[in-house]
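Human: I would love a firmer grasp of how sequence relates to backbone shape in proteins. Could you go through the record with me and say what the backbone is doing? Here is the record:
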Amino acid sequence: MKITIIGGGSWGLGLGTVLSQNKHDVLVYDNAPKIVDKINQKHICLQLNESIPKTIKATNSVKEAVSFSDIILFVVPTKVLRSAINSVTDVLTSPKLFINAAKGIEPETFMRISEIFEEMVQPNYLRGFVTLSGPSHAEEVIKGMTTVITATSLNENHAKEVQELFHNSVNFRVYTSTDLKGVELAGALKNIFALASGLIAGKGLGDNARAALITRGLVEMKKIFQAEGANVQSLMSLPGIGDLIVTCTSKHSRNFQAGYKIGNGKDLEETLNAMTMVVEGIRTCEAAYHYGQKNNLDLPIISAIYDIVFNKMDPEKAYKELFEREKKNEYAI
């Protein structure tokens, strides 16, 4: 098959590597000439300085990229998603199956990525939408390390189609799901708790605290799931607890790294400027905090991270306030 990838970052090239190893033809679009050159001339992922298959090609022509394939994989930060979709829809001439591999929620609208695609892509050009999600750091995928993820779509046949593209019996296993809302929410919300986990590590609070954070983070995620009418079973899935664990415990997690630096006393702006990749947890935290306020949800960890990031609260004060809350039963709402 031919597959177009929008976004030449590490995750896009990690997935491109899987597709290429599965004998598919891959064309990557990126608007940065340096990235396109590294792919075509050096066969390297610029962000990770890792080799990629020579069969992967790149272009800075969105028209060429879109006409190359009837399957388009988006791997761009949510901050620039609308701009990227606009670039593609401007040159669409036939229906496409859209796949998304980014994880986030739009702060201004609390829209999930599938909802943004539905809003922006005309129905006659939207053959289907599938999201890829699960515990999957690009640094490991691009090296061919064992990875297991989920392809999710409201249309099970579309999910199976994408499963067929990416699945192999060597190192990349793909399950399917139809719980699009739950999978998208889980993939986005876990980044908030990865930020919190980095803060814990940066403050030297230990593994006990991190385990508690992951557990209580699941409780807050469940509250948002229930408010949104999402299937809480997806919290126990690869895109749920699987992704939550890996982003809260791994040095590869950019959200964990950002939280670690803030926990070490770095300013937010200074931290973000030093990061080479986008920290989605910042935007998702903003979205989840305002959603919780609007829907009267008790989300103490999310609120604490919001105060630290957006209100410049001292992490020590946020920690103190969390522990000074009233005592309660673990299973109380």
Observations:
- Residues 235 and 241 are 6 Å apart (CA to CA).
